[in-house]
Design brief:
alpha/beta; globular; UDP-n-acetylglucosamine1-carboxyvinyl-transferase, Chain; 4-stranded mixed beta sheet; 2 domains; 23 strands
Length: about 425
Amino acid sequence: MTDLALSGPGGSFKATVTVPGDKSVSHRALMFAAMAEGDSIVTGLGPGEDIASTIAALECLGVTIIGEQVRSPGVKGWHGPREPIDCGNSGTTMRQLAGILSTSPIQVTLTGDPSLSSRPMTRLVAPLEALGGVISVSPDGTAPLVVGGATSVHGASVSISVASAQVRTAFEYGALVADTASTIDSPAGFRDHTERWLTAVGRGHWSSPTAFTVEPGSLPPARYEVPGDPSSAAYLWATAAIEPGAVITTPGISLNPGRLGFLQILDDMGAIVHAEVTGSTGGDPVGTVTVEGGDLHGISIDGDLVASSLDELPLVAVVAAYAEGITSVSDAAELRTKESDRIDAVVAMLRSLEGGIEPRPDGFDVVGTGFLAGGTIDTASDHRIAMAGAVAATKALDTVIITDAEVASVSWPGFYATMESLWS
């Protein structure tokens, strides 16, 4: 573990930064390419350790990935490795593979690091079993997962209680080998990358604004272009938003509607936000986002807005500390099931910097004073906490020390260097 001391230069800046490839889209592009028989091309993959976990896992199943080329025998040609597949810290890798493998004839054990092994996996079980998929979890409802060995996969119609893109995607992948069409429904607010891509290749359609029907069949080999990651860009947007006069422009960003909650929050708090669609990839809009800092004020965040900004809510707490007034986040109990208990971790982070914050069972309340002090941030080995802490440090009154700072490489190696470059 490495601690990092940051003394942000502060002050306004004007910069244009191209961020790494979108992590959510990178996982899906690799999975789509690996399920297809033949050669596919995937460009712009995210560089983080989570994407490396997906690549390594697919290679264990007989897929060859060299640079941008993905060569696969197709999901029906995958073979079960003798050893468990290690998904590292990547919940997306584990859940998406569980969906594919649960309805396959091969049986595989999926494991992960201590953090991943503590995250809940039981919500996968009922939807996948409805298809005839085979999946078992530990007595605690966590990994290791034992998946696969299905003998009969049939169409099913299910409804889940949370707006989880990962559960929806797992079901949709598993349903591709069913004997008839399948439908999944959930509350609104989920990322719909998978549904857009399945629609684009003729393997599904919307049955309602939230219900998607999967048409079973094989996927074709294709070329996938991964756009920039809005969850990564969010740290740059926040850095500009908290500094009046600062401007950051990020071209080539995924503008999937389910990913724009954080931009809406910044706009509602008083930052100047401009997003322009310049193209599309896989059915997802892509474009340029510019954020300019302003005088920020507290707001209330709940409902669908929470679902579309869940990964960025630790960052919202930092922005709220530099705003004036109270910012309240509720309906976000899902934060407690991430790489850390992100509600507890966010509260500890702000308090270590003398910020005003109180936890809720399903969120937190931040009392914005317009400043944070220096201090030491315990990241709880969570990349989102480490990266949010770096944003806090850019305007803090004294040095901020981030423990286990290298955990940021899970999603963005080189993140700290990029942050420093904003003022150069």
